[in-house]
Design brief:
two-stranded antiparallel ribbon; mainly beta; 97 residues; two-stranded antiparallel sheet
């Protein structure tokens, strides 16, 4: 017999506009960000996630509007930032809705 359990929780990620590179970020309304990238290596960090447990499964979900799409989306998770903690999503399709 096999028993599996799934525990889910919502953790709101907040972008830390003090830790960013080659981008302008505005927040309006709360939790909604307008990001304009500039340059070849734009990035931004979130504020720390207080309850991160590397043994649990996490899903990152977001909506985006980008008429030209997004190129080479990458998410680094956990500390320290390294290639061992990198999820690559590639390009995301253009969208206007």
């Amino acid at each position: 017999m096999m028993c599996t359990s799934l525990f889910a929780q919502n953790i709101t990620l907040q972008l830390n506009s003090n830790l960013k590179n080659q981008m302008n970020v505005t927040e309006s309304p709360s939790g909604t960000y307008n990001i304009q990238t500039m340059g070849g290596d734009p990035w931004i960090q979130t504020t720390p996630v207080p309850t991160y447990n590397p043994e649990q499964v996490y899903v990152i979900s977001f909506d985006y509007l980008a008429e030209n799409g997004l190129d080479d989306l990458q998410v680094f998770y956990g500390a320290p930032v390294s290639a061992a903690r990198l999820a690559k999503f590639g390009s995301l399709s253009p969208t206007s809705e």
